[in-house]
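Q: Predict the bound structure with pyridoxal-5'-phosphate.
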Amino acid sequence: MSLKTITEEYREKFISRTPKSAELYRKNVSLTPYGVHSNWRIFDPHPIFMARGKGSRIWDVDGNEYIDYNMAFGALAIGHAHPILVERIRERVENGTVFGFETEYSVKLAEVLLKRFGFEMIRFSSTGLEGTQLAVRLARAATNRPKILKFEGCYHGSHDSLLVGVKPDPLHAGHPKKPRSVPAGPGIPKDIADQVVIAPFNDIYAVEDIMRQHGNDIAAIILEPIPMNMGVVLPKKGFLEGLRKLADEYNSLLIFDEVKTSGKFYRGAQDYFGVKPDIIVVAKALGGGYPFSAVMAKKDLMELIGPRKVAHGGTFNSNPLSVYAAYITVTEILTEQNLAYAQKLSDELAKGYRDVIEDKRVDAHVVNIATSGTVFFTKEEISNWRDFVSKVNWGRWYAWVLGILINGVIPQALGIDEQWTVSIQHTKEDIQKTIEIFDKVLSEIKGRETVPVKVEEAI
Ligand SMILES: Cc1ncc(COP(=O)(O)O)c(C=O)c1O
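A: Predicted complex:
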């Protein structure tokens, strides 16, 4: 019997498989904080440096091949280097990539997206961040109110006005039903954080209370209709409808941040749940792997945007490369039929995981919807941030991730708050192989000690 924890054994294997990544990491930490250009990519013992991707697979700089369920944090619903897109983009690149002018495809894409998601006008940007930033600015301008209500644990991009109550340490985050507005870190002025009112997800009575107190100052309620920055949290029955009603009652706007979900459901989570927001932000997967986001709303709202009106500009907004990639993606590749195929595979993955968990009698459960899901190492339900922080065994989760990685699968985006994405290029064989590896790893972990991980240190 080994005296080491299973986590230590896996870490050693991980390190021995990835020497080139380790070397690049050692160089990069002297060049950029934590050796990565986005805090969400920090990984212990060191991040993996990637070389190339094709279909459902990705290869690291050491030549290790992985079945990839990270899929660029959900930005690759169409999988890596989709052959149709590769060919079309090659032609596009030869004809210029950024003009500072609109192109024919910005018109075509606008028409397609407005029809698909059911709105009247649209504006394009490059990132989810820019999308939610514009949505919030628009809501403040439309209502002439300063405050935004957001949910604890939801993430809407790396900009000051919404970097509040994102992953707070519960010790400093106040009462669970009336959380404090905790800035994500230094550099976000208290005055900005004070403009954000925080509510617990899935607790409509708590939101009602909060709206009674702040409702007349609230420009908008913003949320991920399915929070996918706490693993995967499903909205309870009636919760989204309740928010819609509250927004109407207080003349606030309802913003759905569908940066992730817009590429997982054909017409977004808004259509799946039958709740229509006033403003929707779509991004990630719709760009087919190119930087793209869009804000959509009714005409009267969108027409508030303009010179000396609501500001919105960007050198790379509606650039020909992203717009063309998004057009080809949404019209030819991420079709309703292809998405249904990926959703079915994702269900099969979830079922396989559930069977293994039951068979091994491990304290875990799977939550999945559309093309995404996650394994929570607890039997208890996770319905908001406080559950997420306090109920899950993160030591087990970390051992599981390492164990799967060293067997050639990236089980999900590697943050604790992430989930898997099954792309339209994954196959039944990928799913089968992944379930077999899951079985092997859970057998190894079961009954073994893992290194405890504190959630505050893991994010
Ligand atoms: C729900 C949600 N909104 C917004 C963003 C920000 O998008 P981006 O990273 O493109 O700025 C993310 C990023 O993961 C997200 O998950």
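A: The chain has a mean pLDDT of 97.
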